[in-house]
Amino acid sequence: MKAYDIVIVGGGPAGLAAAVAARKSGTDSILILERERELGGILNQCIHSGFGLHTFNEELTGPEYAARFVAEVKRLGIEYRLNTMVVDISRDKVVTSVNREDGMFSVRAGAVILAMGCRERSRGALNIPGYRPAGIYSAGTAQRLVNREGYLPGRRVVILGSGDIGLIMARRMTLEGARVLLVAELQPYSGGLKRNIVQCLDDYGIPLKLSHTVVDIQGKERLTGVTVARVDASGKPIPGTEEQYDCDTLLLSVGLIPENELSRGAGVEISPVTSGPVVNESLETNIEGIFACGNVLHVHDLVDYVSEEASAAGRSAAEYVRGLSADGAGTVIRMNPADGVRYTVPFLIRPERMDEKMTVRFRVGSVCRDCYVSVYFDGERVLHRRRPVVAPGEMEQIVLEKEKILAHPGLEVITVKIEEA
Q: Rounded to the nearest 5°, which phi and psi values hold at 354?
């Protein structure tokens, strides 16, 4: 069985950034396993601009952003295998995969980095009544059809869900000549970035109806229309608020789910909030030597943050295989999301192993205006930052300093919460 210092599962933006960082940290033996026919992941179909502002200080399209990391992987001589599906990861870090050339094969890894990304929630998870006619797509599938395959899914479009992919596809379908009738969102707030609401909906006169959902689908062979209704605070349709829209296409942008079937099979602890692994300050899971980063860990807004997080995972994995990591003994501080904060990444911190400064990312559970993001070391408030608005669709972050944490001996819990102004 061939052995590698680091095996990375996934060749998208997270896997590429992790590989480059690990290689630059001094690890030579690295293997990337990617199930698609080329590196780059979902970025290859994201032809709109807006990528790279944080990473490269310039505005790039998705393929341009991916190409820079792919070129770096090739320049550094990092080994990768395409069209290769990973089918199992064992607790002792044996990675089993299958492809046409090698059949089923296994490699032994000193460390494994999970970078499988996420998938879209399907219609089956929504329980919308009606037949299953042609013309119903996830927003990501429609994006691939339009941007890569050259097909226009339909002419009259309704979009359910206001996630970023749905917002971007509202603009994309309009530019291709389709008419987007509306975007309906179940929640009383949008699930996407504010800039996408402005640039993709407002600029094109596309209405966004909050607290609305699709309650019926018409058509047997091909979609002929949908019924949209307002919902109450519990998400149940309100009788008498139904509106009929004649359309031939319904795009679903109703959430992303981290791809963690392999993680669960390896025994990785999964958070019920993020549906991603529970990690410490090194982005290491509960299984020693298995790390996670990117959308498989928690769903991100910006690919720049994915690359930043993945680079940290790559450096941590490189330190682990060189034997520089601690054995896990020592102080462990628990992160406590409270009062409007749904989760934090990381979940646990070992102060002795953290960098001098560490970014903690989190999401809130609802829209809150004119508020404070506060951080408490046990009962002592150490950060109180005013924010004009926080929303579930936009990831928040704080920076913790190692020096300040070590100045609080006996610290057990760091609480992150939202407080009213």
A: -75, 155
